Amino acid sequence: MLELRHIHQRYADQPLLQDVSLQVAASEVVALLGPSGSGKSTLLGITAGLQAPDAGSVWFDDQDITALAPERRRFALMFQDFALFPHLNVLDNVAFGLVEQRHSRRQARALATQMLEVFGLAALAQRRVWNLSGGEQQRVALARALITQPRVLLLDEPFSALDADLRVALRGEFRARIQAAGMAALLVTHDEQEARAMADRAVRLVDGRLLATW
Ligand SMILES: Nc1ncnc2c1ncn2[C@@H]1O[C@H](COP(=O)(O)OP(=O)(O)OP(=O)(O)O)[C@@H](O)[C@H]1O
Ligand SMILES: [Mg+2]
Known about the structure:
Elements lengths: L1 E10 L2 E11 L4 E5 L6 H9 L6 E6 L2 E2 L10 E4 L11 H11 L4 H14 L15 H14 L4 E5 L7 H18 L2 E5 L3 H7 L2 E6 L2 E4 L2
Parallel strand pairs: 3-8, 3-9, 6-7, 7-8
Antiparallel strand pairs: 1-2, 1-4, 4-5, 9-10
Helix pairs in contact: 2-3, 2-4, 3-4
This protein binds adenosine-5'-triphosphate and magnesium ion.
The site of magnesium ion (MG) has 4 residues, from helix 1.
């Protein structure tokens, strides 16, 4: 289980997160709501280990992992701006995490090829990512986040660039995979309908505090 305990963060003397605590169980999806600038992406970054909080701790399965490097957490973070590797093609962007986990390049590409099928990207495997459409890039980022079978899945506005049909299809795909793999998932979204469709419950960041919403 993922647990955030009493997280505090401030920038330039302005408090952003104040005593934020949250638990997300295995197979649970929690939606993280809140206005623009309220600290949602910051909280995901702290959870992923990209930045240390000013105070507070991050726990996984009763271990304090606050000081653990991001690549050792087996968490996947899908960034709001995708952060794909521009010099790699679609297939190698998706395979990257597996190569990092010491799979052979051949095996990584074979698994990535399957993942591309799931996300309707098979025909784009050899394309460079920088000339893909926004929705195509978003699907590459989703495939890349799921392929390493993370223990925790952190999604920052994951479906925002997709058309309505694709969005509905991928929500279902994600839910099923999260449950099958027993992942804990934190989903940042502005879309209340999406939160309702995907999440078991929702919390909202308001003035630096986390409020249970439903
Ligand atoms: N490293 C930093 N230094 C200074 N200020 C920062 C830093 N990182 C984030 N901030 C500020 O903290 C606030 C919260 O940013 P954050 O990206 O977490 O918001 P958000 O809730 O994800 O917003 P959005 O919905 O627009 O994505 C913003 O005002 C941002 O400018
Ligand atoms: Mg954000």
